Amino acid sequence: MPVTTNIEDLRVLAKRRVPRMFYDYADSGSWTESTYRANEQDFNRILFRQRVAVNMEPRSTQSTMVGQPVAMPVAIAPTGLTGMQHADGEILAARAARKFGIPFTLSTMSVCSIEDVAAGTDNHPFWFQLYVMRDRDFIARLIDRAKAANCSALVLTLDLQILGQRHKDIKNGLSVPPKPTIPNILNLMTKPRWCLGMLGTRRHNFGNIFGHVKGVENLGSLAEWTSKQFDPTLSWADVEWVKQRWGGKLILKGIQDVEDARLAVDSGADALVVSNHGGRQLDGAPSSISALPEIVQEVGNRIEVHMDGGIRSGQHVLKAVALGAKGTYIGRAMLYGLGAMGEAGVTRTLEIIHRELELSMAFCGRTDVASVDTSILLPGSYPTGTPRGY
Ligand SMILES: Cc1cc2nc3c(=O)[nH]c(=O)nc-3n(C[C@H](O)[C@H](O)[C@H](O)COP(=O)(O)O)c2cc1C
Q: d(Cα 79, Cα 85) in Å, to the nearest integer?
């Protein structure tokens, strides 16, 4: 196994091993990608306060997210097409998360179905992410399937009723499975591991949708499917409907604005995720880390606030926690690990992030993640109040 010491190593390896159209699908944002870049860059502008001669043992990163114990305040973010980064990708990532003791969130647009992941993880509870589509009967059945599979939280995504344009996906002709065009075949010939893995599984399509929606034989392109099926009229009344139907822990994902955060509180959800979908939707929106403090300030005592976007190290997790996030999610950091080395790669991602988190916390003079707050950050280096002011 190649020696990997940070998430960038895994990204480079994934780029080598994953077919171009799927690597590009992960490593891109919408339009100019300015929000995608800002998500990570803004983390790097925040500075820690180094403290010394403080007992650094024992250290704990244990916490809870929506009342459930987590080995560190990190969950795996829902990502579509994960089973195209590596054969059976969702099952492998869910197993790695389970062994590490953190939540795995399965996307509606996954390749392995809800039932596949449940069976592949011995019915260990995982989280399910819901996109609301026009066909409400299908959505009602999907919620029921998540309940039947023992899912312990529902993550309702609110920021993708229409799809942000990602130039590379259009140019690559992104489709699942890839079409046998000459450029695709030439590219696949350079990815023997990936091809062998895919030959060994029957899961090559959108497992939650195929065979469950009447008349769907072929999804065509992702953009085409989204524009036809996703419901652009989604409203807070629908959130209420989903909440009633689900009846369990509900997390609202994709909140960036303080007014929406207040509405999320009013909806009675258990948590919200400050997220701009990894810079894949509204390009030109502020980074998640710069949007976080104002939302925490406004609603943090009434709802659990989580965040995602740009996390590539345990230091980023620590900064998010310092700024008030009770939990964080990793999207691409997980995908790079998976594309690089399957389940072992996702485990490696989690080990790297955990170690960086734990050591950085100790360098800041803290031994328990529960005691982390803004006092570990250098005043003036971190965003406060409105994201515009940062
Ligand atoms: C390739 C890819 C696919 C994604 N698919 C979904 C999805 O199906 N549902 C969803 O709610 N979010 C989806 N997201 C957004 C992630 O859940 C998360 O918000 C984002 O990846 C966080 O940013 P990060 O990748 O910098 O960690 C996707 C992100 C990526 C990179």
A: 11
Residues 7-383: name the CATH superfamily.
Aldolase class I (3.20.20.70)
What is the 375 CA–ligand 1 centroid distance (Å)?
30
pLDDT value of residue 176: 85
Mean pLDDT (the chain, rounded):
95
Best residue among 43, 79, 311 to mutate for probing ligand 1, ranked by most atoms within 8 Å of CB: 79
- For residue range 24-58, what is the model confidence (pLDDT) as tens digits? 999 999 999 999 999 999 999 999 999 999 999 99
Determine whether the annotation assigns residue 290 to a binding site: no
Report whether 336 belongs to an annotated binding site: no
Please tell me the distance from the alpha carbon of residue 388 to that of residue 286, in angstroms, as a whole number: 8
* Of 357, 355, 360, nearest in space to 4 by CA: 355
Residue of minimum CA distance from atom 29 in ligand 1 = 79
Distance CA 5, CA 300 (A): 35
147 alpha carbon, distance to own chain's centre: 21
Mean pLDDT of 83-112: 98
Q: Can you tell me the distance from the alpha carbon of 372 to that of 192, in angstroms, rounded to the nearest whole number?
A: 45
Residue 352 Cα distances to 10, 312, 334, 349, angstroms = 10, 10, 11, 5
Ligand 1 environment, Cβ below 6 A: 25-26, 39, 77-80, 107, 109, 129, 157, 253, 275, 277-278, 280, 308-311, 329-333
Active site residues: 277
Q: Is 136 annotated as a binding residue?
A: no
Mean per-residue pLDDT for 70-81?
A: 98
Nearest CA to ligand 1 atom 7: 79
Query: For residue 6, what are the contacts with CB-CB under 8 A and spacing of at least 6?
Result: 313, 352
Q: Distance of CA 17 to CAs 89, 192, 247, 342, Å?
A: 14, 8, 41, 11
Contacts of 52 (CB under 8 A, 6+ apart): 365
